[in-house]
Write a structure and sequence with these properties.
33% helix; 425 residues
């Protein structure tokens, strides 16, 4: 993640049904603090087996304490506040942090800095602690064990930093998520922290990482300075293309690179306008005193500001919309579950267009064959199809669909939001 981070791609800088003991304790505490959130975390909400929507909890799904408020990412503990735990705690309290996100693993290796004693010490000082790991997809089940180790050490949540190495790896992403959930349980809070511009990365399996059983939260790396855009633009673009995944979007901003204080404050203001519960920042070891002040000083609310409410448009290439990529995969999965058995291949061709027209007609929408905002909202009333991705081609299965990775997984990134020479964290 970086602007020096341990991440490789662009915006960088940066089972079983029995709950493990730590997850059970988390749910008990959550039940005491927020019964509706606990109900959601334990499986409430969503779609019933009959396909009918379940009642949704109010107001924010599974709002774990660790992912509500202000957070700061730590790459190296030894390089943050001089490596002094007492100084880290003092700074956290001075600048109003509720959560620290500490690197806990890289690929198949755990990081010794993320220890049970470290987590316990920070908990004792009133801080929530999340682990984060950079993943590659070369050995996905081993990577899942590294993620689960952070939970075993007392982490309140896990953040998955999946970037360019995971593009095209649908099979591996599913193996990772399946194993992770077997190890940490179905309700342990997990967030995906990846590229913010979904349309730039057609082969990245967002629909797996944030699909059924995957991450409950989305923490896109919205590094506006490195992307070389404005704060307003990074919000509108990120939210537009991430909304269909139906995961709470918790913006990850930057202090690395020392953007102007006014921009940091604007980022905070827009997080409120867009309804985000959490804002976190990359990263501690690169934050100056001025950065800390900008992310903590009181700011007023924006008046007369209307956030972007656009959703991505999907269509055939001749119609001018997004014609391929993971968002098309996601739409096709919902079309399939709604009874329109299109090929789930990530390409918006004639058959998908025809299915969309039929779906629109059946739902009182204008039959344009274009997936627009109203069509997305109707489609997402249905769950995604149960798809098992395989590198061996389609296989007959009674438990759902077993399909080869979508053709769109082979597409290269259309662009990288930030310079590719930045480090991997």
């Amino acid at each position: 993640m970086s602007v020096v981070k341990a991440s490789a791609g662009a915006e960088r800088r940066p089972g079983n049904n029995r709950l493990p003991r730590y997850a059970a304790v988390w749910l008990v505490l959550l039940a005491l603090l927020c019964p509706a959130a606990a109900w959601a975390a334990s499986g409430g909400g969503g779609i019933t087996g009959s396909g009918k929507p379940k009642p949704k909890p109010r107001p924010h799904p599974a709002a774990a304490k660790a992912l509500a408020g202000r957070g700061m990412w730590i790459w190296y503990v030894s390089q943050s506040s001089g490596g002094s735990l007492s100084s880290i705690v003092a700074n956290a309290h001075r600048y109003g942090l509720g959560t620290v996100m500490i690197k806990s693993g890289d690929g198949t290796g755990t990081w010794s800095q993320f220890s049970r004693s470290l987590v316990s010490s920070l908990h004792a000082q009133g801080l929530s602690v999340c682990g984060w790991q950079y993943v590659y997809g070369t050995h996905p089940t081993s990577e899942a064990s590294v993620g689960a180790a952070a939970a075993s050490n007392g982490a309140d949540c896990l953040l998955i930093d999946a970037e360019s190495e995971y593009e095209g790896k649908y099979v591996q992403a599913q193996q990772y998520i399946k194993k992770l959930r077997q190890l940490v349980g179905p309700s342990f809070p997990v967030a995906l922290a990846s590229f913010p511009y979904v349309d730039y990365h057609p082969g990245l399996p967002y629909s797996v990482f944030m699909g059924p059983g995957g991450a409950q939260y989305n923490a896109p790396q919205m590094y506006w300075k490195d992307i070389q855009t404005s704060v307003d633009s990074v919000y509108s673009h990120t939210f537009e293309f991430n909304l269909p995944y139906q995961r709470p979007i918790e913006p990850l901003g930057q202090v690395a690179g020392h953007p102007p204080a006014g921009q940091i404050e604007r980022f905070r203001q827009l997080s409120r306008v867009y309804g985000a519960a959490n804002v976190s920042w990359w990263d501690w070891q690169e934050a100056s005193t001025g950065d800390w002040q900008a992310l903590s000083r009181p700011i007023g609310s924006l008046s007369n500001y209307r956030p972007s409410s656009s959703w991505p448009t999907l269509s055939t290439s001749s119609q001018g919309g997004l014609a391929s990529g993971d968002l098309v995969v996601w739409a096709q999965e919902h079309l399939y579950k709604a009874g329109y058995h299109v090929s789930i291949d990530g390409g918006f061709g004639g058959r998908t267009k025809s299915a969309v027209q039929q779906f629109q007609g059946a739902h009182g929408l204008r039959a344009t064959g274009i997936v627009d905002t109203a069509t997305w909202q109707a489609l997402l009333r249905y769950p995604a199809a149960n798809v098992t991705w395989t590198s061996k081609g389609a296989v007959a299965s009674r438990a759902g669909l077993t399909l080869p990775s979508p053709r769109s997984a082979k597409e290269r990134a259309r662009a990288y939001e930030t310079p590719p020479h930045l480090g991997r964290g």
